[in-house]
Write a structure and sequence with these properties.
This protein is mainly β and 76 residues long. The protein is built from no helices and seven strands.
């Protein structure tokens, strides 16, 4: 069971859940351990193709990341 400690949490998808503390989003494993710490203003669930939509904090652009945190593509 994940202990409370997040302000928001999405459902698990592809083994990870997007969670927020304040306005910063990260991804956690089913144990509640942060496995992908990020600085995104918004992060969404991973899809079956292994990508998740995120919104960058500094300029508000959207893009897709892989489960290892690397970028798959950004909007212009």
């Amino acid at each position: 069971m994940i202990q409370p400690g997040f302000d928001r949490a999405d459902d698990f998808s592809q083994g990870l859940a997007a969670v927020a503390v304040g306005k910063i989003w990260s991804y956690v494993a089913p144990t509640g351990t942060v496995v992908l710490a990020t600085t995104y203003y918004r992060a969404y669930s991973f899809t079956a193709d292994g990508l998740a939509l995120v919104q960058e904090k500094r300029d508000g652009r959207y893009g897709y990341i892989r489960k290892n945190g690397s970028w798959a593509g950004r909007s212009r």
